[in-house]
Fold:
Amino acid sequence: IEKFSVSLRAEATAPLALFDYENNKNYRILIPCADKKVYLYDAEGSIVKGWNFNETENKVEVEAAHYQVGSEDYIVFHDDYKCYFLNRSGEPKTEILTSFKFSKKNKIWYDNTASKPGFVTTDASGTVWYLYVDGTKDSIKIKSFSENHWFALEDINADGKSDFIFADGKKLEVYNKS
Structure:
């Protein structure tokens, strides 16, 4: 494909994330790199003009995600201790102070089935954290998991509510919110 492969400005530290904001095949490719910068490319492999994100405090090692919440766009990802909620230009939308170490394997999900919709992820011990755009947060401790656990949020039993899915070692466990 013309222009590919693209030489990155630094080594990638996480999987690329592919976004199509308007479902019109105008793709954006977001790649966190070792220089603590997060680059946004278009489908032709060029840096997107107008992307204004400076840099993260630590390396980003998890995939970023894009969510539309009502009419608002959120590009979300985290490094070891800080989460980033950005608009399409890479500018911060909200700041949520965290006092925990994020799980290195798990992205930030969006749960619109909760009584108070919010962003969901886990810390290094498997505690589930809800992060809200007003800057508040809540946590749910189901049990301890290893630092190498995987976490996902899906409606497993088709009851219209998201469930917590954990994979840790050779175990797969699913919990409802209660």
